[in-house]
Specification:
By secondary structure, the protein is α+β, with helices and mostly antiparallel strands. The protein has 3 domains: 11-104, no CATH class; 105-144, no CATH class; 150-242, SH3 type barrels. The chain contains 9 helices and 5 strands, in the order αααααββαβββααα. Helix 1 (2-60) packs across helix 3 (87-104) and helix 3 (87-104) packs across helix 4 (106-119).
């Protein structure tokens, strides 16, 4: 009996040891993935910031006169040339701020209008300059509603939904040619949201999303891997608001009117 008990204890000890060995590798894998989730965003952010700072420093620092360069002062006083990181970025920020302050004054506006009049006489440059200026004025305008609202639209056909961003209300020739009131919607691509399509969508076919623009952009860039939580109340979450079948009758009646058929006739 005693020998049987010892044998059973040994077998149980071996089983426990094997379980520990098997559980060891999944734990290491889980710890490694957790470490990747923590360090990868930090490393990528640091790499992008360093790349941007190096590009700006490489192009701005050589323009600074030697007697105004802090690196020259440190080299002469301490005897060590450190090479201050971010110096070019700081100088660029100060220069842009000073230019904006000068452009806001009377003399600055005169110089700016004179320069724009010269650019307006150049065939290709005036088109590029005018387009870039108009886009920047729209994006940087404090009261602008561009890219401040994420929406859901059916694209490229009924029953398939896509995330878009309202860029404004359609005006001019496009709105005058369309019977319904349409809205400018920018439909970004994945994973590069800077490219996409400009769609003129009727306002009644647009579903306003409760998520913010940043959350919607993250969802587009990640290809749906990063999904923001639904912050609506339980009643709204449990009640679907849209369906592809909702627009089937309107589509049929629209096609019938286009073909000259009365949709009410059997």
């Amino acid at each position: 009996m005693a020998e049987n008990k010892k044998t059973s204890r040994r077998r149980e000890a071996r089983r426990r040891l094997r379980r520990r060995r098997f559980n060891f590798f999944p734990r290491i894998r889980a710890y490694f993935l957790a470490g990747v989730l923590v360090t990868a965003p930090l490393a990528i952010t640091f790499a992008v910031a360093r790349w941007l700072i190096e590009i700006v420093d490489r192009n701005i620092v050589p323009i600074i006169p030697a007697h105004w360069n802090p690196d020259t002062y440190l080299r002469e006083t301490i005897g060590i040339e450190i090479g201050l990181p971010g110096l070019g970025l700081l100088i660029l920020f100060v220069m842009i701020t000073l230019i904006g302050a000068l452009a806001a004054g009377f003399l600055g506006r005169m110089v700016l209008s004179f320069g724009e009049s010269i650019l307006a006489r150049m065939p290709v440059i005036r088109s590029v300059y005018g387009a870039i200026k108009q886009i920047l004025e729209t994006l940087l305008k404090q009261q602008s509603g561009a890219f401040r609202q994420a929406v859901l639209i059916e694209y490229p056909r009924r029953g398939i939904w896509a995330i878009g961003f309202i860029t404004g209300t359609t005006e001019g020739e496009v709105q005058n040619l369309v019977r319904e009131e349409v809205v400018n919607v920018f439909l970004p691509t994945t994973p590069n949201p800077t490219s996409g399509f400009l769609l003129f969508v009727p306002g009644k076919d647009i579903v306003i999303l409760n998520m913010g623009v940043e959350e919607a952009v993250k969802m587009v860039i990640s290809g749906g891997i990063v999904t923001p939580p639904d912050r609506r109340n339980e009643i709204e979450r449990a009640t679907p608001q849209v369906s592809a079948k909702t627009y089937e009758k309107s589509d049929d009646s629209r096609e019938s009117r286009r073909d000259g058929i009365n949709p009410n006739e059997d």
